[in-house]
Write a structure and sequence with these properties.
Helix 3 (35-59) packs antiparallel against helix 8 (130-160), helix 4 (64-75) packs antiparallel against helix 5 (79-88) and helix 8 runs antiparallel to helix 9. Strands 1-2 form a two-stranded antiparallel sheet. The protein has 9 helices and 2 strands. The chain folds into 2 domains: 23-56 and 130-209, no CATH class; 63-127. It is mainly alpha-helical and 225 residues long. The chain has helices at 3-12, 24-30, 35-59, 64-75, 79-88, 92-102, 108-126, 130-160, 168-222, and strands at 14-17, 20-23. The chain is rod-shaped, with a radius of gyration of 28 Å.
């Protein structure tokens, strides 16, 4: 087989086996029943990634314009207008600032505590299901390895029941079939791991903006009027 053919097979997702070319779907089917949980984990990981990225993208809005309007309303004494502005912005920063505005007149320490408590709740919402994504990243390779072990045991049992010499072709066929689950598990684990770390980095960006906005709001309350 030429190098060009090997590269073409890699791009198209087809693998040459025993004189024939198998697609990725064919290989997954040959992996046996242990490929079912691996495929389900892949689907779940993709769903969680898309769902979380939409939520985080919505929360990761630039708060500068919003805070500029809040500052203007608060300095003018229009507290109700500032609250209304916060309710119109469905973001963690807006909900946090709304809680701070509702505590105006209380000691500054109480306002800071309110901001911190709301911030913790919002961070918890942003990090929802990230632990599950991390679990998929760790469990998928182990499930794949378990499938390989089970497949190897079945292959050697089948070999032990054969009379006479064992064909190298049948031995290699059983081994590569068993190894498919390990490959599938590793691929799902890598995808879930990369998705988890990307989402964590995006959540950290939102947290940084929340902290910056909270400090900005506290400074606003300390400005002389």
């Amino acid at each position: 087989m030429s190098l060009l053919q090997i590269a073409t097979d890699a791009v198209t997702g087809r693998v040459p086996v025993e004189g024939q070319t198998l697609s990725v779907i064919d290989l997954a089917i040959k992996g046996g029943f242990m490929m079912i949980p691996i495929v389900l984990l892949l689907i779940l990981a993709i769903y969680l990634f898309i769902e979380r990225i939409r939520v985080i993208h919505k929360a990761n809005q630039d708060p500068d314009t919003f805070m500029g309007e809040v500052k203007e309303l608060v300095l003018l004494g229009d507290i109700d207008g500032a609250k209304m502005l916060c309710t119109q912005n469905d973001t963690p920063v807006a909900r946090m600032i709304e809680k701070g505005i509702s505590r105006l007149g209380s000691p500054l320490q109480n306002i800071e505590t309110s901001l911190e408590n709301v911030g913790k709740i919002e961070v918890f919402k942003l990090e929802k299901n990230l632990a599950l994504l991390a679990t998929i990243a760790g469990s998928a390779p182990m499930i794949g390895f378990l499938g390989t072990v089970i497949g190897m045991v079945q292959a050697f049992i089948s070999i032990s029941q054969q009379e006479g010499s064992v064909s190298p072709k049948s031995l290699s066929s059983g081994i590569y079939t068993a190894m498919i689950t390990t490959v599938g598990g590793l691929l799902v684990g890598i995808i879930a791991y990369l998705a988890y770390n990307y989402l964590v980095s995006r959540v950290q960006q939102v947290i940084h903006k929340m902290e910056y906005t909270a400090i900005d709001f506290i400074d606003l309350l300390q400005e002389p009027r």
